[in-house]
Specification:
Elements lengths: L8 E10 L5 E7 L2 E7 L8 E6 L3 E5 L1 E6 L15 H16 L2 H17 L2 E8 L2 H11 L2 E8 L13 H12 L6 E7 L7 H14 L3 E5 L3 H11 L3 H7 L7 E5 L5 H10 L2 E4 L1 H6 L7 H6 L3 E4 L12 H16 L7 H15 L17 E5 L12 H6 L5 E6 L2 E5 L2 E2 L4 H18 L1
Length: about 425
């Protein structure tokens, strides 16, 4: 930004501590992008349409939640304390068959968007059925999203005929490409054990044709790996590699049970891995070999997974649990430092979702997705450094949130949606679930 530039910026944040340093600084935003960042001491006169005083606050990049099934907020707490297969087959799949509708996906995804925005998450990678409704909810809420239509080889909500699953996903992607700059459509195959070979190959091809990311759950449980070896003579990762599905636009979610050969294949192919520590702990699936993935320079993002197996969408909590889990397991306090995890939840997550270089940093030319955190709280006092956010729990102290240059949360209030209405709608849907279960 030049001093001769007299056009006002859209939004100017002043006097906040920048995540990149300790001195008070400013961030100027224009056209959805960061136009300038610097120290207050060196700030030129900048006319602005709107100015936010961030005194006593920290300004940081918004967090990126790389895996969610947002509409599953409806099933938060519906079936707790069960192993994955039993949880899915006895509780979640039957509930989905009965209660997933376009209306449910819209309102429950909107609830998820509100929960994420209010806790500092500005981008989510979502995967579900009736994903056009989820994309609309994210668009209305003003959150950035990579929204993936679910593909499964069984009758599914919105796709009663499994033979139509990939065609439906293609239609969804075509409908949402270029519709809203904050929404990227994508395709999600549930897993190699719920999608046959032809479906996996066709769905990946559809994603390649459209130039969008391809997601799937991979190696989440030991049982899944044993089953894959029995059926295919290969681990899930080996099987996907044999099918030619691993490349840098393929995102493997969970990756709990990966062996050395699997990680070598992932590294070689450039595939991304998303780890979901809390969901894996809650379902007792295990824990992903996060330090080993990072040592191999595999692209890693962090996700909350859906609300039914977490049971919140707070990415700050996810970072703390992820860090502590691996330290406790490895008996090594130096493994996964807080700053590294925060990196994974910002720049790392952005790269994982194909938004690398455009998102996750307080730099001119980056997309203006940022969060203002009020440091005047016992848990964040004193504030020596950024580690305090990870171990101190910063979600409740999120004051303001900007996505694509648009103010979506101000003084802890959602500006883009009517939160009481969203809560009331989801409670109505929950009453039906309660009556029907």
């Amino acid at each position: 930004m030049h001093h001769a530039d007299h056009h006002p910026v859209d939004l100017l944040l002043t006097d906040g501590r920048l995540a990149t340093g300790t001195a008070p600084g400013y961030v100027a935003i224009r056209g959805g992008m960061i136009a300038a960042v610097g120290a207050m001491a060196e700030m030129p006169p900048i006319p602005a349409v709107e100015t936010i005083d961030a005194t006593g606050c920290l300004i940081m990049p918004g967090l990126v939640n790389c895996h969610n099934h947002a509409a599953m907020t409806l099933f938060r707490g519906l079936a707790d304390d069960l192993p994955l297969r039993q949880w899915l087959t006895d509780h979640i799949f039957p509930a989905e068959a009965r209660f997933v509708s376009p209306e449910m996906v819209y309102w429950c995804s909107k609830l998820a968007a509100a929960e994420m925005l209010l806790s500092g998450t500005t981008t989510v990678a979502d995967a579900y059925f009736y994903e056009e409704q989820a994309a609309q909810a994210f668009s209305d809420a003003g959150i950035r999203a990579v929204a993936a239509q679910g593909v499964i080889d069984f009758p599914a909500p919105g796709v009663p005929e499994p033979a139509e699953n990939v065609a439906a996903a293609r239609r969804f992607v075509a409908a949402w490409q270029g519709r809203d700059p904050r929404i990227t459509p994508a395709i999600f195959c549930h897993s190699p054990y719920t999608c046959g070979r032809e479906t996996l190959v066709a769905a990946k091809q559809a994603a390649v044709d459209a130039g969008v990311p391809f997601f799937l759950h991979v190696a989440e449980t030991a049982g899944e790996v044993a089953e894959s070896r029995a059926h295919h003579g290969r681990t899930p990762v080996g099987y996907l590699h044999d099918l030619g599905l691993l490349d840098r636009h393929t995102v493997c979610v969970h990756g709990v049970w990966l062996d050395e050969a699997d990680m070598d294949l992932l590294a070689m192919s450039g595939s991304q891995v998303v780890v979901c520590p809390e969901s894996n702990m809650k379902l007792a699936s295990g824990s992903a070999p996060l330090p080993e993935l990072l040592a191999r320079e595999i692209g890693v993002g962090i996700g909350t997974d859906g609300c039914a197996s977490n049971n919140n969408l707070d990415l700050f909590a996810e970072l703390a649990r992820g860090a502590l889990l691996h330290k406790g397991q490895r008996l090594d306090p130096t493994v996964l430092p807080a700053t590294r995890l925060l990196e994974l939840a910002t720049v790392g997550g952005a790269a994982c979702l194909g938004l690398g270089g455009r998102l996750g940093r307080l730099l001119p030319g980056s997309l203006a997705d940022l969060v203002v955190i009020d440091l005047a709280h016992p848990r964040l006092t004193p504030f020596y450094g950024i580690e305090t956010l990870v171990y101190g729990g910063a979600a409740s102290q999120v004051r303001d949130v900007v996505v694509g240059g648009r103010l979506v949360v101000r003084e802890r209030r959602c500006l883009t949606l009517d939160l009481p209405e969203v809560l009331a709608r989801v409670r109505e849907l929950a009453a039906q679930v309660r009556a029907g279960s």
